[in-house]
Amino acid sequence: MTAQNLIDSLRGGLVASVQAYPGEPMRHPETMAQISRACELGGACAIRCQGLSDISAIKGRVEVPVIGLWKEGHDGVFITPTLRHARACAMAGADIVALDATDRPRPDGRTFEETVAELKKEEVLVMADCSSIEDVRRGFAAGCDLCSTTLSHPGAAIDQAAGQGPDLDLIRQAVAEFPGRPVVCEGSVHCPQDAADAVEAGAWCVVVGTAITHPTSITSWYVDAVNGS
C-alpha cells in the first residue's frame, strides 16, 4: 500500500484508540492487541496506540494501519516528545507516527519542524497532534500527512465528562483553511452522534478511544447516571 493509499483508506472511517496506562487492569500488550483486533472486526479503519510493546503486538494482530505514539512524562510535550521516540515508534511497526505539534520546547532541543523534517527524510508518515488552528497550520506547513484535534481539549480524554463533545469549531476552521487535507477529529467523541457530527463538519476520519476501549470510564458514566449525578 502506498503512503497516499494508506491515508486515503482512513477517509470517512473510525480509528479506534486502544490505550491503557500503568496501574490499569488492561495494561498488557497482548490485551491491547486483542482489543485492537476486536475493534478491527467491528469496522475500525485503523488503530491508534501508544508504547513500543503495544505497537509491536498490535501490528502483529491487525491488518488495518497502526498509528503509533510514545507517551513519556505528564507535562509539556509528552506525546512522542523527541526524534528518538518517533523513530522508535516507526521501528516498532507504526504505519503513521503521531507527535505533539505545539511549539513548546522539546526534551532533545529540536523544534517540531526539525523533528518532522528528519522523519520525512526517512519517509515516515506523520500525524500532528494539535491544540489550535495555529498548530494545524504548523503541522501542514512542516509537511505532516495528517493533523488531528487531539490536544484541543483540556485534560486527558479519560478525565472528561461524557457530556462534552468534539471540537467541531476547530475542525470546521481547519477544513476551511485546508480543503482536501486530512484533518482528523480526536478528543471527547463519546457517542455515535459525536462521530457523525465530526464527519459532517468535514473531518477526514474520527478517532474514538475512551468510549470504546476504556471500560472503567464507560462504567463510571453509567454509575453516575444511575446515581443521578
Automatic annotation (TrEMBL):
InterPro entries (alphabetical): Aldolase_TIM, NanE, RibuloseP-bd_barrel
EC number(s) on file: 5.1.3.9
SUPFAM superfamilies for the chain: Ribulose-phoshate binding barrel
UniProt entry keywords in alphabetical sequence: Carbohydrate metabolism, Isomerase
Top enzyme category: isomerase
GO biological process: N-acetylmannosamine catabolic process; N-acetylneuraminate catabolic process
Matching CDD domains: NanE
Gene Ontology MF annotations: N-acylglucosamine-6-phosphate 2-epimerase activity
Top-level taxon of the source organism: Bacteria
Pathway: Amino-sugar metabolism; N-acetylneuraminate degradation; D-fructose 6-phosphate from N-acetylneuraminate: step 3/5
Gene Ontology cellular component annotations, sorted alphabetically: cytosol
Pfam families from the UniProt entry: NanE
Family as reported in the entry's similarity comment: Belongs to the NanE family.
Protein name (record): N-acylglucosamine-6-phosphate 2-epimerase
Organism: Granulimonas faecalis
